[in-house]
Design goal:
Structural class: alpha+beta
Number of helices: 6
Helix content: 40-55%
Radius of gyration: 17 Å
Number of strands: 7
Strand order of the largest sheet: 2-4-5-7-6
Distance between the termini: 43 Å
Length: about 190
């Protein structure tokens, strides 16, 4: 049997995470300073995965984090990067709730490239329509009923402010969506 975290423990962890996120954002907006630090993508991926467990279960979506702990640390503001990953995973879950796919799957993977790490969030959903794909990072562009169309625009801005990048790619095989984050490596001590 699979060991499950009790719901009250999950709720407490989520409340602590949200409180810390708000504190860091408040600090950023009051000082204009980002607290960039060396960050393990494997740890961040595990944190995001844990935060979505109940929502994934309800949606019938599997999330696989294939991010090696052996990857070098990246240089990033942890709260902002977590916001970006939360947005991408939430978007993928939302996209797959509108499909009848037998397999609903999200994969987060990473690999080291020349001077950076590429983190990929790919899903088995319907993908992004061709007419929207070219504008997917523009503010107020959305396909979600009731959506504001700001999540991807903000996510890209947060990454660019840290020397990173966020791009959309059609998923391999033509179905699904794939978002690629380019993140700078942390400087050697």
């Amino acid at each position: 049997s699979v060991w499950a975290i009790p719901k009250d423990v999950q709720a407490t962890r989520e409340q602590k995470r949200e409180k810390e996120t708000l504190r860091r954002l408040r600090d950023f907006y009051s000082t204009g300073q980002m607290a960039r630090a060396p960050l393990s993508l494997a740890a961040l991926c595990n944190s995001v995965s844990a935060a979505f467990q109940e929502r994934l279960r309800r949606a019938g979506v599997e999330l696989a984090c294939n991010v090696s702990a052996e990857l070098p640390a990246i240089s990033a503001e942890p709260t902002q990067l977590e916001i970006v990953l939360h947005n991408l995973v939430a978007n993928a879950i939302d996209a797959m709730t509108t499909t009848d796919n037998a397999v609903k799957h999200i994969e987060i993977s990473a690999e080291q490239r020349d001077g950076h790490v590429r983190l990929t969030v790919a899903d088995s959903g319907p993908g992004v329509a061709t007419d929207i794909a070219a504008r997917v990072f523009e503010p107020f562009v959305t396909t979600k009923p009731g959506g504001m169309g700001l999540g991807l625009a903000i996510s890209r801005s947060l990454l660019r402010a840290q020397g990173g990048e966020l791009e959309y790619r059609e998923a391999d095989g033509g179905s699904g969506a794939r978002f690629e984050l380019r993140l700078p490596l942390a400087s050697e001590p």
